[in-house]
## 1
Amino acid sequence: MDESEVIDVVTEQGAARVELDTPQGPPRLLLVLTHGSAGTVAAPDLLAVRTAALGLGAAVARVTQPFRLAGRRAPGSAARQDDAWTEIVTGLRKERFPGLPLIQGGRSNGARVACRTAGAVGAEAVVALAFPLHPPGRPERSRVEELRGAGVDVLVVNGDRDAFGVPEESDAARLVVLPGEGHDLNKNPARVGGVVAEWLLGRMQ
């Protein structure tokens, strides 16, 4: 039976929370996920990815960042957000999963954080769900350089109706665009989990 645990973490940017699920037997990799700006780690797509990754033998940590645990909907400074994330993930690996391969990701703003910090935490790859290419209606304010600058392979899963835009295939190692899905990716979360599981399995073989 899979095991679940809640871990409270104190960072220099405030308190955070890690909801950790571990598989039966020794985990094969650590997948760390986080929420969007105003969302939670109970988002349907994140839960679907958790379930799918556990089925592959991954340990899955869903992180509520300090700004959300404090009740704020806006993440504030990207530098402070990235510092907190790096502290959380580095500590989790050191204390619980030393030497285990790390893949990190998140949805929307969380995908941006995962891309920006991949190198700092030693992630082998990034899962970017609903990567917000630009603010709605503002394509000139592209964030594509965060995606391209991750320095590792990035899987992007976006809906074709996402008001935040959809990256190009050349912007990531793999781009999957799901028909009928918007930014929430909540019409068929199991499909999102399946896409991520297929990609993870290919990396684990």
## 2
Amino acid sequence: MTITIRQIHPTFVGDVSGVDLTRPLSHDEVAAIEAGMDQHAVLVFHDQQFTDDQQVAFSRNFGEIELAVAGNLTKENEKRLSLNFADVSNLDRDNKLLARNDRNRMFNLGNRLWHSDSSFRAVPAKYSLLSGRIVPAEGGNTEFADMRAAYDALDARTKAAIEDLVCEHSLIYSRGSMGFTELSEEERRMFRPVRQRLVRTHPVTGRKSLFLSSHIGRIIGWEIPEARDFLRDLTEHATQREFVHAHRWRQYDLVIWDNRQTMHRVRRFDDTRDVRDMRRTTIAGDGPTIAQVA
């Protein structure tokens, strides 16, 4: 079969058919998927019954896998999955539901905020590849926002004002906005802020996009209240309904998104009752968006 991509939102998101991602892919198939990502920013594949090894092998077609270290509170000896995976489930290492007051559960509720994966790293992520192994019957959708269309819709004055702005990203900011502030000194060092451009240019298409995320806490050179007010307005603009697609998960869906062109968030579900076993491989970016300060 030939890979076919059908756009399912007015500005982005492609539904893909004609390919089994669990087997080795040809060069042409990988190229078709990459071209689809450049155009649509989010691709949805149904009925991909991955093992962990198969998901890792498929992911490596697109670059180096970013190891799941320094992005959460789970210690290495507590992890359920290998370091090739970001475990965005609601399960502990024994595959039991996290307790309501579990510290890791509280921290992971930050995934319900609009964000871009790994924007809190000096080298932010390229692609995220999320496999739905067990999905809840109700809720738990993932929403995506097209940051290219959001940028295009800005007026010329705003585009000029933001062109050279640099923001500071950290998990301290996103979790702090939810009231999760009790971090150890070691955790604060691990989550130390990094700097990213507010406007990014895609290396293939040349399209500009907003690089927004709940991880942003400052605009360099601005007073914090003014910066956060401005960022709130930009985020409200970028997540208007016309820029957003909600993916309702089916078991064994694989969704790939380009963090350079989108934001996303998971929607509420009863995570103290329903299992949501989601396993994410993340492709590391090619470099920082701006030089970091020491």
## 3
Amino acid sequence: MPVIIRQVGPCFAGEVAGIDMRKPLAPDEVAAIHAGMDRYAVLVFRNQDIDDAQQLAFTRSLGEIEHAIGTSLRATEDYRLPTTFADVSNLDRQDKPFARDDRRRLFAIGNRLWHSDSSFKPVPAKYSLLHAISIPSKGGDTQFADMRAAYDALDDETKAQVEGLVCEHSQMFSRQQIGFFDFTDEERERFRPVRQCMVRTHPVTGRKSLYLSSHAGSIVGWPVPEARGFLRDLIEHATQREFVYTHKWRIGDLVMWDNRQTMHRARPFPASEPRDMRRTTLAGDGPTVAQAA
């Protein structure tokens, strides 16, 4: 069966037919998926009844994976999943939902802010692949914003202003926005800011995208209040309804998105209900800007 992609979002996002992740990908299928990502930036694969090993094999067929190490407040001995997966569930090692005031849960609420995965790392992520194992009775949608369309819609003066700007990204910035300040000294060192370009150019299509995130807390050379006000305005612009696709999860869905071209956020759901989502991640090609020593 040939790979067929139909658009499902307002200006991007496609739903894929013709891929069975239980089987190895043929070279033409790999090429079709990459081409689909270049065009749509978000791809939805329905009814993928796969286990973790099959998700990992599918991910590795598309490129080199990024390990999830030190990106949450889960202690190593509390991991539910190997580091080949980012555990973005609300579950502890016994598969029970975190207590409402558990600091691991409160830290993860930061994922409800618009962000790009691993923008707080010197080499940010390329693709993220999220598989739904269990979903809550309501809520828990994921929203995606097309940062290419957002860039295109800027006026010429703002396009000239953002060109060449460099932001500092850290998970501390995003968590402080929701009132989370409970960091240990080790965590503060681990989450030290890194620098990322504000505008990225896609290596295949040549399209420019705004590269924004709730992790971005400053602009190099700007006073912090001015920078944060400007960043907030840009995020409001980029997340207007016409640029956003909302994915309503079904068990078995796998959604893949390009972090270079999109932002995303999770939506609230009942705290007492499990939401088991397992993410594999493709490593980025390199830093967006040379890092200061």
